[in-house]
């Protein structure tokens, strides 16, 4: 297993369907995440404006810490440190 930290990003393109159009990417750097997300968006749509204006947010850095999402029907929300796993 690599010692390299990996990051979880959500990348959006400003378009909406039933919700905002997004790609989740695990990558070592923001630049690589944008490259991978751009390729994923290009697979869906040939018009450059669909994949050229991307917005990126870091959701989590995998550094040995745990990750759990909130129950949601609207996307991905990461629960904070206040999560009590004993109940």
Per DSSP, the total helix count is 2
- Overall mean pLDDT stands at 78
Q: What kind of sheet is the major sheet?
A: 3 strands, antiparallel
Give the strand order of the largest sheet, numbering strands 1, 2, ... along the chain.
Answer: 2-1-3
Structural class: alpha+beta
Explained architecture:
- It is a single chain.
- Residues 81-87 have low confidence and may be disordered.
- The chain is built from two helices and three strands; from the N terminus they run ββααβ.
- The longest helix has 15 residues, at 30-44.
- It has a three-stranded antiparallel sheet with strand order 2-1-3.
- The protein has helices spanning 30-44, 48-52, and strands spanning 6-16, 20-27, 55-62.
- It starts with 5 loop residues before the first strand and ends in a 25-residue tail after the last strand.
- A hairpin with a 3-residue loop joins strand 1 (6-16) and strand 2 (20-27).
- It is an alpha+beta fold and 87 residues long.
- It is 23% helix and 31% strand.
- It has a domain at 6-62.
SSE blueprint:
Blueprint: E1 6-16, E2 20-27, H1 30-44, H2 48-52, E3 55-62
